[in-house]
Amino acid sequence: MMKKMWLVLMSMGMTLSVYSDVTLHGLFTDHMVLQREIPVAIYGKADPSEKVIVAFAGQEKTAITDKAGNWSVKLDALKASTNSATLSIAGKNKVTLKDVVVGDVWVCSGQSNMELLLGSCGSSADAKKADYPLIRQFDVPSNYAGFQQTEVKGSWVSCTLQTAGNFTAVGYYFGRKIHRETGIPIGLIRSVASGRSIEPFCSADGLAAIPELSKNKARLDVSGGCAIGPCDWHCMYNGMIHPLVTFGIKGVLFYQGETNGSEEDGYYHKMRALINGWRKAWSQGDFPFHFVQLPNYSNPDNKPEGGDGWAKTRMGQFKALSITNTGMAVTIELANVGNPGDVHPQNKRDVGERLALWALAKNYGKNDLVYSGPLYRAMNIEDNKIRIAFDNIGSGLTVATKKGYNPMVKDPQGKLQRFAIAGDNKKWFWADAVIDGKTIVVSSPEVLRPVAVRYAYSVNPDGCNLYNNEGLPASPFRTDAW
Fold first, then answer.
1. Which domain holds residue 426?
2. Do 216 and 352 have their domain in common?
3. Distances in Å between the alpha carbon of 82 and those of 20, 96, 102, 160, 189?
4. pLDDT digits (tens, 9 = 90+) for 283-307
5. pTM of the entire structure?
6. Which of 155, 247, 374, 399 has the most crowded CB, counting CB atoms within 10 A?
């Protein structure tokens, strides 16, 4: 009996010992990056009513834990710093985090093309010379949950020759370009879900705010929430995004859409749910949210009307540019040369660097930077022709080609490809398209009274060749809503 009581007391003592220790949320580890220029929360657990003191970069903040043992302090806004510093947290015990820097933290999310590692993609040789200790990554473990989670396990890792191969390739190339241009330390939080549609990435609040998705909300209200299936609403958000939302960030990079197939307006509304929901959860205002428009894929479709496969999803992504503080990397020519059926294009360098151009221009003050290829703006019917106007033409429009990792090559004698035109009978024909100053004039002898134009509007518009002089491709577009 005495032995049993002793064991019980020992068990209770061990439990009390565990709870008396001050602990940090799992995002706080050695080598971490703290977000600059905003008050950042430092938080964790300890005994109820315990005094916790946090010290960093000359600041000291104090908190008293609540009844559940939660504590949180906010550091005053910090300037970017490449100097390694120590973050200390003291209560009944003391926790010390080493090699902490201050910079910009970007959440890298999406499905398998964001998941693809630097050491596994076509430019894996870059991993062998990727010595950038001020670029760091935190890898969120897979966790699909029916209810919102708060905890996450993992560790921050600096980018060295030994570790770079395990970095998200898109995130690495993005971070490398930003770091090279600004000198600011870059943190990448990799939170990905391979083979998932956009629905699991959306929060319940994000969904509820979009009237066009009300039928989905009604279904969830009846079912009681997430069924933890691969394409159910919220599951990935609950387990892999919500645990991050108290942590200060600069913005989000998102590469997803393959699994949603041929959605257009539906995908656009889900992007609204995704972006608005995440911004609401973080309570950091309309932080930058930059995403990747799907590349060419599969065998070319030579029907002028197009509309097959991912063509519509790209239009939904294009429409998502209307959401405040977003950017879109166009990747329509980046399918693997000779193997367009591979759903994982190996050239992630151009993807990451095109995302970085948007961020540099919109979020880092590089106001004179050409950050995008031509984006459709408007059309005007002129007799038997249609004139197309664009945003982001840079120093001018050009016909060009690009192969693999090589820069685009201008083709002054080349002819624009993949333009189609139709009259009000909705019959499509391949069109002649000519650069005329800052516009494109589109026509066909088959269509005497044109009303609509499409460009690169198919799953694989092989040969599409409209660029600006800065080497960035035009986004696919259509002027009709048929």
1. 375-478
2. yes
3. 34, 19, 7, 16, 19
4. 999 999 999 999 999 999 889 999 9
5. 0.94
6. 374
